[in-house]
Each structure stands twice: as structure tokens, then as C-alpha cells.
Amino acid sequence: MSDQKEALLRAVALSQSYSSKHGRIRALNSVSLELYPGETLGIAGESGSGKSTLLRLLSALEPPHEGEVRFEGKIISGAPVNERRAYYKRIGIVFQQPRLSFDPRWTLFRSLEEPLQINRFGSPGERRALVLETAEKTGLDEELLNRYPSQLSGGQLQRAAIARAIILKPRLVFLDEPTAALDVSIQAQILNLLKDLQKLEG
Fold it and tell me: Per CATH, which fold does 90-201 belong to?
């Protein structure tokens, strides 16, 4: 990749360790990577190899023990709260277990609208229009928006998780094993959806 093009995301020598009853456990050891606009980067590894830990560090959900993360050239890891909040508005995250990331008391519509309300986006009518637009992009029928998480299939919930992650039109989306809990046929649908969204949103 040309040095003249600025990396969207850059991680330098990230290391992370946690305390346990057996002492310190090193979850990551000096991981570096670069991601440029329009690129897709996949991290492969066995269960417990640190993939989810890396996602938490890259998304600034926790600070690294060593190293740094930069987004558009600005240091994000360990940044003040207001700078991290600004970063959170620019990224989307899809977690490994989508059912656990939705409030069971809320309809799907309310869950998708929540990021818009938190960020004071538009009027109620404008928020509704964007929820409907995003649902259509991710292959969710409008009638599903009135359902609760317990009334949705795994594939529908994963589409909903993706919809929520992209509704603020982020520069970058993190996905933590987005197809791991799905049937093979549904896995292909979700992967194709992600490819289509990347082409559509750039």
C-alpha cells in the first residue's frame, strides 16, 4: 500500500494481558496492522487466540497494556472520553452473539432508532425514514420492525445487528465472527450482504 495514502486505522505493537488466579495471562503480543479506506481485513485464529480482545482494543472499548491505535492519524487508545465518543460515532460494531446485544423489552424498530436518538439525529419522522431505509438495505422486512428479539431468527437478528451498526453511516465497521452462530446457508447470505453493503456504502 502506498505511503502517500493515509491509513484509516493503524495499530502499532498492541499487547494485552489480564489477571487470573494463575497469574497474568497474555491475550495479545505485539500485534500491528493497517487498514486503508475501501479495504476489508479478516483476522483468523483459533478460539481463545485473542481475536475478540483485538476487536475491543481497535474499537477503543478497552485500552491496550502496550501499543497504540490510530484512527485517521489520531491516537484513539487511551484518548480522553470526549475523543473516544467522537470515534464511536464513526464506527459500527457487530458482536459475536447478536441476541445478547439487543434489549429483549424493545422492538427492533426502537433498537435501530436508539443510536439516532442518542446522537440527536433529526426529527422523529426523519429517524423513522432512516430506520426504514437501513432495514431495506439489510434485507429486513418492515413488518419485522415491530417484533421483539425473541420473535426473530438468528439470521434476522444478525441482519438487525448489521443494520444498527451502519445506521449512522460509519467510516469503519468491526465484526466479531458475524456468522459463527448461523447455519451454513444463512452464513452465505450474511457474507453476501456485507459485500453488497461495502459496495453500496463505499
Answer: Rossmann fold (3.40.50)
- Give the contacts of 27 (CB within 8 A, at least 6 positions apart): 16, 17, 18, 50, 53
Three-state DSSP at 71 gives: strand
Written as nine digits, the cell of 121 is 439525529
Q: Is 60 left (phi over 0), alpha (psi -120 to 50) or beta?
A: left
Length of the chain: 202
- Farthest-apart Cα atoms in the chain, separation: 55
Give pLDDT tens digits for 47-92: 878 899 999 999 999 999 999 999 999 999 989 999 999 999 999 9
pLDDT above 80 for 5: no
Q: What is the separation of C-alpha 152 from the centre of its chain, rounded to a whole number of angstroms?
A: 20
Which residue spans of the chain are classified as CATH 3.40.50.300? 1-80, 90-201
Domain 1-80 belongs in CATH node 3.40.50.300: yes
Q: With the C-alpha atoms ordered 100, 104, 108, 109, is the resulting torsion angle positive or negative?
A: negative
- CA-to-CA distance for 113 and 130, rounded, in angstroms? 9
Query: Alpha-carbon distance 55 to 50, whole Å?
Result: 9
The Cα 4–Cα 13 span in angstroms is 22
Query: What pTM, to 2 d.p., does this model score?
Result: 0.87
Look up cell 456504502; give the residue.
201
Residue 21 CB partners (closer than 8 Å, separation 6+): none
